[in-house]
Design a protein that fits this description.
Its EC number is 4.1.1.49. It is built from 15 helices and 32 strands. It is of the alpha/beta class and 621 residues long. The chain is 26% helix and 21% strand. Strands 1-2-7-8-9-11-10-5-6 form a nine-stranded mixed sheet, sandwiched between helices. Strands 15-13-14-24-28-25 form a six-stranded mixed sheet. Strands 3-4-19-22-18 form a five-stranded mixed sheet, covered by helices on one side. Helix 4 links the parallel strand 5 and strand 6. The structure holds adenosine-5'-triphosphate (ATP), oxaloacetate ion, calcium ion and manganese (II) ion (MN). Calcium ion binds next to helix 9 and strand 18.
């Protein structure tokens, strides 16, 4: 710039800007202008009173000293009146202390809380909250305990194969007290009041109390979010979770075999979590409760994804972890009802949850664009690895775990159907990731076969990432979710058979696993082919296709599908070593047979001819 006045550069610089000055005398005043107060509920104390009751000790005769709001906000604490007899002299040190309750915070507030709390929460390049779940990066089914009392002893499924490992009422309240003492010792706890089940007639009110902001954000995303009005009239929850997962269980206590313990009391309507911070425990713990409550009302609870075509045709996707429920129910051409937990009542289907929990190992923008785009501000990313500077996530990195996850509200999927309800299903798709490579990519099932495969609940996982392990491992999990069911599997199976018959749904078995040889020899069926197969089920194309029957499993397989190479439809064609194929096929058939033996003595439903048909619907060799 040329300088007109002899070498001295002048700048067009004005100290007194032309706009009006801010209306603040101090920096604190300025900051307080920044945030516009949110509308407060009419009776600010009422949720706090209910929370005080939730957090009250059973052993002592008073509740904790609770105040609403963040201790950092520097507002003088105004304690709520709790059950402590009025005008008492504090009888213990713990009753002199305040615990701040942060009630139904927004995602933005929870982000700020998460950053202040742990050195393990970060914003990724797309705005998601990256967190660590600590030592546990998956569920701990062996540490689940359910209170066995006079009622549940008769009602629930106990013993071999059952997920319900017993504890008594007394040990439950001891663990509850341990969790409460821990939570009440903290400066602040997070409390979420939310709903489960989009069917308004069968909605359940849940309260989640946790020490970690990320857990509160996870449940904000995964449960149904109440409106301000619904919160005002929330009242007493139907079920409460005490998540003290940062604090261990006492392994010397009765029924405890490790320092992790997930305890459910159906009579008290409570769940206690000690010694694991994996957020999926809360989600699947509540799912177990729904598996207890809903069948009592004649409603079937299902570990399935669900979506609907533009013409109103609904499909359910059953399958164990990693078989494709989330991936295949999230379909650009269809409306998403939900990815993991549903109810089937006489009114149709409804999602239990308000969000999705997608596996994100090897996630790619090209193959799963909707899930990729859902990973933005508000989404919780568990145990992923990111670039320290750019904060870009490396979805291929398994350094922390293979089970990396994204939890997001269902509205983050553009074609989600809100409210998440639909009519009766037309197709029931059973997904299996067969690492043996012998199940066909798709087969049409009759009702007995559908029930046989539903009760078997097969998938095979590859034997992890350790060197030298080449054998796939078969897993059988009744109803494709034995870890979550409460009654004997035949109860759910009978309900499914009855509903499929009544509403005329067709069953399908889809192998999303290996083709051209077992794991180590062949390769996983390409996702675009599986999508074409699923499209052909939805469109009705496969109902009218030509079929042939496979040996051993007796499955009906189509001879051609638009967009899928015909030779892969019969797995025998894809194996170069035909003898190895036959041997592997018989091996898997044997595993199915062994697994089903325990069910052979049970009757399914009122119709004993159905039981006989189901028993005959398995492999024949
Ligand atoms: N042919 C295929 N069909 C479906 N999924 C495939 C296929 N090939 C690879 N995949 C991958 O397999 C994984 C399926 O996981 P998904 O999250 O859908 O499991 P899920 O059934 O929802 O399990 P969970 O109950 O644990 O949530 C995804 O990572 C997906 O990309
Ligand atoms: O529950 C979890 O942690 C993940 C999940 O959906 C499953 O395992 O079925
Ligand atoms: Ca899923
Ligand atoms: Mn699941």
């Amino acid at each position: 710039m040329a300088s007109p006045n002899g070498g001295v550069t002048t700048y067009d610089y004005d100290d007194s800007d032309s706009a009006a000055p801010v209306r603040a005398q101090t920096i604190e005043e300025l900051h307080s202008l920044q945030r516009k107060a949110a509308a407060t509920t009419k009776d600010g104390a009422s949720p706090l009173q209910s929370i005080s009751a939730s957090l009250a000790s059973l052993a002592r005769e008073y509740g904790p000293n609770l105040v609403k709001g963040d201790p950092e906000a520097k507002v003088a604490p105004v304690p709520v009146k709790h059950q402590q007899p009025s005008a008492t002299i504090a009888s213990s040190d713990s009753s002199l202390k305040f615990t701040h309750v942060l009630y139904n915070l927004s995602p933005a507030e929870l982000y700020e809380q998460a950053f202040g709390q742990k050195k393990s929460s970060f914003i990724t390049s797309t705005g998601a909250l990256a967190t660590l779940s600590g030592a546990k990066t998956g569920r701990s089914p062996r540490d689940k305990r359910v209170v066995k009392d006079e009622t549940t002893e008769k009602e629930l499924w106990w013993g071999k194969g059952s997920p319900n490992i017993e504890m008594d009422e007394r040990q439950f309240v001891i663990n509850r007290e341990r969790a409460l003492d821990y939570l009440n010792s903290l400066d602040k706890v997070y409390v979420n009041d939310q709903f489960l089940n989009w069917d308004p007639e069968n909605r359940i009110k849940v309260r989640i109390i946790t020490s970690r902001a990320y857990h509160a954000l996870f449940m904000h995303n995964m449960c149904i979010r109440p409106t301000e009005e619904e919160l005002e009239t929330f009242g007493t929850p139907d079920f409460t979770i005490y998540n003290a997962g940062e604090f261990p269980a006492n392994r010397y206590a009765n029924y405890m075999t490790s320092s992790t313990s997930i305890n459910i009391s159906l009579a008290r309507r409570e769940m206690v979590i000690l010694g694991t911070q994996y957020a999926g425990e809360m989600k699947k713990g509540l799912f177990g409760v729904m598996h207890y409550l809903m069948p009592k009302r004649g409603i079937l609870s299902l570990h399935s994804g669900c979506n609907m075509g533009k013409e109103g045709d609904v499909a359910l996707f059953f399958g164990l972890s990693g078989t494709g429920k989330t991936t295949l129910s999230t379909d650009h051409n269809r409306l998403l009802i939900g990815d993991d937990e549903h109810c089937w009542s006489d009114n149709g289907v409804s999602n239990i949850e308000g969000g999705c929990y997608a596996k994100c190992i090897d996630l790619s923008q090209e193959k799963e664009p909707d899930i990729w785009n859902a990973i933005k501000f508000g989404t919780v990313l568990e145990n992923v690895v990111f670039n320290e500077r750019t904060r870009e996530v490396d979805y291929a990195d398994k350094s922390i775990t293979e089970n990396t996850r994204a939890a997001y509200p269902i509205e983050f999927i553009p074609n989600a159907l809100i409210p998440c309800v639909g009519p009766h299903p037309k197709n029931v798709i059973l997904l299996a990731c067969d690492a043996y490579g012998v199940l066909p990519p798709v087969s049409k099932l009759n009702l007995a076969q559908t029930m046989y495969h539903f009760i078997s609940g097969y998938t095979a996982i590859v034997a992890g990432t350790e060197d030298g392990i080449k054998e796939p491992t078969a897993t059988f999990s009744a109803c494709f979710g034995a870890a979550f069911i409460m009654y004997h599997p035949t109860k759910y199976a009978a309900m499914l058979a009855e509903k499929m018959q009544k509403y005329g749904a067709t069953g399908w078995l889809v192998n999303t696993g290996w083709s051209g040889g077992r794991y180590g020899v062949g390769s996983r069926i390409k996702l675009p082919y599986t999508r074409k197969i699923i499209d052909a089920i939805h469109s009705g194309e496969l109902l009218t296709a030509n079929y042939k029957k496979t040996e051993v499993f007796g499955l009906e397989i189509p001879t051609g599908i638009d967009g899928v190479p015909s030779e892969i439809l019969d797995p025998v064609n894809t194996w170069t070593d035909k003898a190895a194929y036959k041997e592997t096929l018989l091996k898997l058939a044997g595993l199915f047979k062994n697994n089903f033996e325990v069910f052979a003595t049970y009757k399914i439903g009122d119709d004993s001819s159905l039981t006989d048909q189901i028993l005959a619907a398995g492999p024949n060799f």
